[in-house]
């Protein structure tokens, strides 16, 4: 149980980068971008084939990031220059990318088990410096060694990567360019009237969103030790679920807060996923349905809660009114009695 | 400084719905001119502003600003010199961003947007100073999301954002029409103040004849895509609403019946 939650934390952190990408397209640009299902695999595929080709894992991961950016830019171009509806542009890209990804990978499945990946490199560093012992110490000190994860390298590394991505995103969204990007999603008329080419910002934003998605794909592939052409199926829904869960649970007052919420949302989503997998009558193949249900729940429940709280408020105020009326009546009766 | 040369614009050309929005319009504006445009619905006032702003392209004719040909430039390029305030208070600001972030975006009208953090202490002070001239307390709410402001406050902010970077031309498209009378007063007095402060060349479209007479040094009355009546300086100062109505009847021979211009007195 506990171990599976550590697994959820690790994968949650990796998928959090994807969720941040989805946050940029869905929330900041208000552009429901389905390219994600394809660009996730593009990032993973490019990283995997580069690693197999002997490229340094860090460079391979960055190549995945760049590939995602280019793919996203094409989606942006389809929408802005081709005047294609955002949803349709994404679907077109998703379908087209399936073939492209197969071309990149050369086959449907690539194994990285015998290759040097970011994770195996880091594992080596951790072992050679016996850093794990440092992280184990507090557990032993508290007498909780049974609950400690087997190794810390993945968590520590992903935490670092995610924090770097989050921080840079926060900073970028506060720059002049970042502000114009956010305003483009908010009010295009206004941004154009202030001398910004909204098309450029849409292309840039969707590019950046898919770059993050592909970066996440590149990391997932290395974490799992294999790349599969079907890895991205339903990824957009997972991303959306993370964004919505995060916003509902952790708030979205400022950008800094929201990006943190999205990351936490991705982790919570993975935790729910891990728990659901442990239920006896559920099978691994049911996971897509569970994902869909999580998204529905995350979308519907907040609305229902708000409505019911409004209703309760209304009832309460009605009751209070009735009470006031009643008291008035009693006062009048008392007055009438004392007068007579 | 701004010249319009034989502008034509027809919508739905060669269909039964064909409508001539602007026909053969030529005008010249001097620096510091404040033009008010009145006319009934469909007279071509908004089309004219959209042609100037670049939202629409003319079928024929050209627009020059300081000897530069604006005609082929898209909206966002022209925006460098042209500030706009829209009729809809929601149109001129980004609701999910804070007041200072909105101000930052308007600052980008004249400068290229960089990859640096835009907000500095100095700029924040500047913004506060500009906002305080509105005298509606926005300077203390720099971090409030604009979506939480009332329509009047949003329009005041839009007006400030369009003016404080000193565009060469300011276009006001019935910018008070969606507000209640007291807020209209506020926005109008702010308009007067800001235009004077930055000595902006302004074109203001309005439905209310009194406003058109009150404001500016030039007045154009438009109908069916043409400027059918214009007055300047002293001639304009002497104008009254009945004058305008009779001028219209004389030229068109019809009553401006059932028109918002009349209803608004």
From TrEMBL, chain A:
CDD domains cross-referenced by the UniProt entry: TM_PBP1_branched-chain-AA_like
Predominant localisation class: membrane
InterPro entries: ABC_transp_permease (IPR001851)
Domain of life (superkingdom): Bacteria
Gene Ontology CC: plasma membrane
Any Pfam family matching the protein: BPD_transp_2
Cellular localisation: Cell membrane
Record membrane topology: Multi-pass membrane protein
Alphabetic keyword roster: Cell membrane, Membrane, Transmembrane, Transmembrane helix
An example Gene Ontology molecular-function term: transmembrane transporter activity
TM annotation in the entry: 12-29, 58-78, 85-104, 147-165, 200-223, 229-251, 258-277, 289-305
Residues forming coiled coils: none
PANTHER family: ABC TRANSPORTER PERMEASE PROTEIN YPHD-RELATED-RELATED, BRANCHED-CHAIN AMINO ACID TRANSPORT SYSTEM, PERMEASE PROTEIN
Protein name: ABC transporter permease
Annotated source species: Allobacillus salarius
UniProtKB/TrEMBL annotation, chain B:
A molecular function GO annotation: ATP binding
Superkingdom classification of source: Bacteria
Primary localization class, coarse: membrane
SUPFAM superfamilies assigned: P-loop containing nucleoside triphosphate hydrolases
Subcellular location: Cell membrane
Matching PROSITE patterns: ABC_TRANSPORTER_1, ABC_TRANSPORTER_2
Membrane topology, record value: Peripheral membrane protein
Alphabetically ordered keywords of this record: ATP-binding, Cell membrane, Membrane, Nucleotide-binding, Transport
A cellular-component GO term for this protein: plasma membrane
Ranges for domain ABC transporter: 2-249
Presence of keyword Nucleotide-binding: yes
Pfam families: ABC_tran
SMART domains noted in UniProt: AAA
InterPro entries: AAA+_ATPase (IPR003593), ABC_transporter-like_ATP-bd (IPR003439), ABC_transporter-like_CS (IPR017871), ABC_transporter_ATP-bind (IPR050166), P-loop_NTPase (IPR027417)
PANTHER family reported for this sequence: NITRATE ABC TRANSPORTER ATP-BINDING PROTEIN, TAURINE IMPORT ATP-BINDING PROTEIN-RELATED
Name the record gives this protein: ATP-binding cassette domain-containing protein
């Amino acid at each position: 149980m506990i171990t599976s939650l550590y697994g959820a934390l690790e994968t949650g952190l990796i998928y959090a980068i994807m969720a941040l990408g989805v946050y940029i397209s869905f929330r900041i640009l208000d552009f429901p971008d389905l390219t994600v299902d394809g660009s996730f695999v593009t990032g993973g595929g490019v990283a995997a084939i580069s690693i197999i080709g002997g490229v340094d894992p860090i460079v391979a991961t960055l190549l995945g990031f760049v590939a995602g950016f280019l793919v996203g830019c094409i989606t942006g171009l389809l929408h802005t220059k081709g005047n294609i509806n955002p949803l349709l542009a994404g679907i077109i890209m998703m379908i087209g990318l399936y073939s492209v990804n197969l071309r990149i990978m050369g086959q449907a499945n690539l194994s990285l088990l015998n290759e040097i990946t970011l994770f195996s490199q880091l594992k080596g560093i951790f072992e050679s410096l016996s850093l794990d012992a440092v992280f184990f110490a507090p557990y032993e000190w508290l007498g909780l060694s049974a609950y400690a994860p087997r190794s810390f390298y993945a968590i520590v590394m992903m935490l670092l990567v995610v924090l770097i991505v989050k921080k840079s995103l926060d900073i970028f969204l506060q720059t002049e360019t970042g502000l114009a990007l956010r305003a483009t999603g908010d009010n295009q008329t206004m941004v154009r009237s202030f001398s910004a080419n909204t098309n450029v910002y849409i292309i840039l934003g969707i590019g950046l969103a898919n770059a993050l998605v592909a970066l996440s794909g590149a990391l997932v592939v290395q974490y799992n030790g294999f790349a599969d052409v079907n890895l991205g199926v339903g990824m957009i829904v997972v991303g959306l679920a993370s964004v919505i869960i995060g916003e509902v649970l952790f708030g979205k007052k400022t950008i800094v807060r929201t990006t943190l919420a999205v990351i936490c949302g991705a982790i919570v989503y993975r935790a729910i996923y891990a728990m659901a997998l442990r239920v006896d009558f559920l099978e691994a193949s049911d996971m897509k349905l569970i994902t869909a249900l999580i998204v529905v729940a995350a979308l519907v429940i907040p609305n229902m809660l708000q409505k019911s709280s409004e209703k309760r408020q209304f009832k309460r105020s009605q009751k209070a009114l009735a009470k006031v009326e009643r008291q008035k009546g009693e006062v009048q009766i008392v007055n009438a009695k004392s007068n007579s | 400084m701004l010249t319009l040369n034989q502008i034509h614009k027809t919508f739905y050309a060669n269909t039964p719905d064909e409508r001539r929005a602007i026909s053969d319009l030529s005008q010249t504006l001097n620096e510091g001119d404040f033009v008010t445009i009145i006319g009934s619905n469909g007279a071509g006032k908004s089309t004219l502003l959209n042609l100037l702003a670049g939202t629409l392209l003319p079928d024929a004719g050209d627009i020059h600003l300081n000897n530069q040909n604006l005609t082929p430039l898209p909206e966002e390029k022209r925006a460098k010199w042209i500030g706009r305030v829209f009729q809809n208070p929601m149109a001129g600001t980004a609701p999910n961003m804070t007041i200072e972030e909105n101000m930052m975006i308007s600052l980008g009208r004249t400068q290229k947007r960089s990859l640096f953090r835009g907000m500095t202490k100095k700029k924040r002070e500047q913004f506060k100073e500009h906002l305080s001239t509105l005298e509606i307390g926005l300077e203390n709410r720099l971090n409030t999301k604009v979506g939480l402001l009332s329509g009047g406050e949003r329009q005041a902010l839009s007006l400030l954002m369009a003016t404080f970077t000193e565009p060469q031309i300011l276009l006001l498209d019935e910018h008070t029409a969606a507000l209640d009378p007291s807020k209209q007063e506020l926005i109008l007095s702010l308009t007067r103040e800001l235009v004077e402060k930055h000595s902006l060349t302004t074109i203001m479209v309005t439905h209310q004849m009194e406003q058109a007479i009150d404001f500016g040094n030039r007045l154009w009355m438009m109908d069916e895509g043409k400027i059918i009546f214009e007055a300047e300086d002293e001639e304009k100062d002497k104008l009254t609403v009945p004058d305008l109505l009779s001028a219209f009847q004389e030229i068109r021979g019809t009553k401006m019946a059932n028109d918002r211009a009349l209803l608004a007195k």
